[in-house]
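Model: You mentioned two targets. I'll fold them one after the other.
Researcher: Yes, keep them separate.
Model: Target one:
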Amino acid sequence: MKSAFRFVSVTAAALALTFTLGCAPPAPPEVDTSTEMVEPSSNTTTSAETPMTEEPAGE
């Protein structure tokens, strides 16, 4: 009888501890999902306008 009481006591303590501390994983970080388009400024160039330059290989 003592072993059954001890089992119930330990189980109740474990459940109380679980519900107190929580067992859910931490919430994921917030991610910015805005769909606003950024207007290019007048001083930027697109990849088609960027001149191709070749740099010599490092020695």
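Model: Target two:
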Amino acid sequence: MKGIVTIGLLAALLGLTACAETGQYPVGGDQCGPSDPVQKLDAADCVVPGS
């Protein structure tokens, strides 16, 4: 059962990213650019709440 859920989630992820146009974010549809704040993110910026 766990494998089927994993395969389903991967298929959904691939489906969402495959529909994105170049230069746009797949979910929001916003334009990508060099001034995007996500360009400056690092793994250290991702903190689990409560830890």
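Researcher: Noted. Anything on target two?
Model: The mean pLDDT is 77.
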